[in-house]
Amino acid sequence: MTMVERIKQTFEALKEKNEAAFIPFITLGDPAPSFSVKIAKALIEGGADIIELGIPFSDPVADGPTIQASTTRALSQGMNTDKAFELAKKIRKIAGKTPLVFLTYYNIVLQRGVKNFFKDCSLSGVDGVIIADLPVEEAEPAFKAAKSKNINLIFIVAPSTSDRRLNIVLEKADGFLYVVSLYGTTGARKSLQEITKKTIKRITKRAKGTVPCCVGFGISKPEHVLEVVRAGADGVIVGSAIVDIISKYGELKNGVLEKVKLYAAEMKEATK
Amino acid sequence: MVNKNRNSNENFSCVDEGKKEELTGVDLSYPCPDIRGRFGEFGGRFVPEILMPALEELEEAFKKIYLTPKFQEELAYHLRDFAGRPTPLYLAERLSEEFGCKVYLKREDLLHGGAHKLNNTIGQALLARSMGKTRLIAETGAGQHGFATAIVGAKFGFKTKIYMGLEDVKRQKHNVYRMRLLGAEVCPVYSGSKTLKDAINEALRDWITNLETTYYLIGSVVGPHPYPLIVREFQRVIGREIKEQILKKEGRFPSALFACIGGGSNAIGTFYDFIKDEEVELIGVEAGGKGLSTGLHSASLKAGTEGVLHGAYTLLLQDKYGQISHSHSVSAGLDYPGVGPEHTFLKQIHRLRVETATDDEALEAFKLVCKLEGIIPALEPSHAIAYARKIAEKFDQDDIIVITLSGSGAKDLDIVREYFDIEERV
Asked: What is this model's ipTM?
């Protein structure tokens, strides 16, 4: 199976089962590189449909305190892009058909060389790439490099994205669309904001089923999942809540893997 | 110098075709920036999607208002009656004797607030007001931009919040207190290197969260398009005045202009109106810190590599994986691992000469200006003075050089005292 198909087929299979995708995020290398493969395994066992792997960047402006702290821990453990690709290869081996998606910032991609980065994604079994600070206007080089290697370059849209720009993004959209659900940075929140449902409705309406719309930022509880799926989302992206569990329980001996798996299962259940 | 055949559509996209020459006073072939916010290949807009509409709104507002006579008159009024412009171009006689050429100092230290920063904050505050924003946020390193933002926040009635790295809060206590006196909230930033770059990250995060009400008032020619353009336009008054003043006093252009470069706002302000005057050498002086070989410096132009930080493609201090390095300088205002994209472009086309001065050299120059001129300069322009001193012998007695004294050293007294105490103990 080629890689483009992995993300596509995942969504097709989910559609048949009438389920939304549960997409957890972890920062590679937090709290240590050796930890990441085990966490990814626990997430898959818990029912993750796609896994987002963060390559840490020193200046993550789109991220709130939880992911920032996670980034700092990973970098202080010597995490870097070489190691990220090594880990992705290892995770690929245990991930079966589950698509893997990198999430990072553009400077990380640039310094490896845009073409090299996507070539290495292809060699490591990474199916998609999300670049948090690469708007569609600046994305041409990455878009071309991704296409040539059959990697999905996944674009982000936000509540502030105008209909005009949304149309431009939809033209390029590949794999799925990452819908930022609120005005703010990443981080778990107690309840969903009104703008979240409004944004989902506006964007899914315009996407007309041409690309799955997955919602991220601020989603941490099964009831959030129910709400956004009811509003029309094809998937949910959950980052800070998982990073919180990892940082809270920290070491393997505290049963962190069990907790991650249990949390994933609970969230996955809500997508059904 | 630059490709003269460039398509005119690519020039200065923010301004109506007919008014470009009048506004910029620069050859239209100087492509800065193009419609994508690029200076050559540098600059651009590398930001989270959520900020894109805000940047478009800002560009639109600036384009609409900047050239109107009403805005220009209002800006001129506040710069004159409130800020104290024009600032003197002062012939530093004893320094001239020491250097062996005619040294003029552009006295931005005499601007209200004690630095050039107010030129930009007045301009952007007027812009923010026209956009109906009620809240200002800003980053600050040395505290001068934070202070200048607090000043306009108070004067124009904005709610104001200043992000400042914890390290800078500690080393610039006086400015923190001054900002608070003016009613601004000062928020220490604990992430990363706890300096200017992290303060920018935090201000961007605030902006992302509060787009509707908030205007992000960037203090240097850094960040995503249109900020490098906006800040340059509001700082250009420095060079425009220098040109008028030097012609009046000397009837000729200087041989060289010197300015320190951190992000580069006082430097671009000094240089911009001389870009076309190729007989005038433009010399930007970066912070050499403890020496380039030690890795403890802030010389992004001299020693950096290309990459993206804070929304712009420019020269950066970073490792091979793209992680941004911690910069170092004795002067908080230069302590930044990136630099404005226009400077990177000007360096690339060999219009800007880039040099460095170390912490020690800057402090020596600081002492010299105190003793010879009765002026306490900020540590930032002390770098420019230090480098000018270093190469002074190549100038003839009749040669004129202009150094922009971008700020007063009142904010640096604790640092300087500590430094010289240590020296004396050794």
From this structure: 0.95
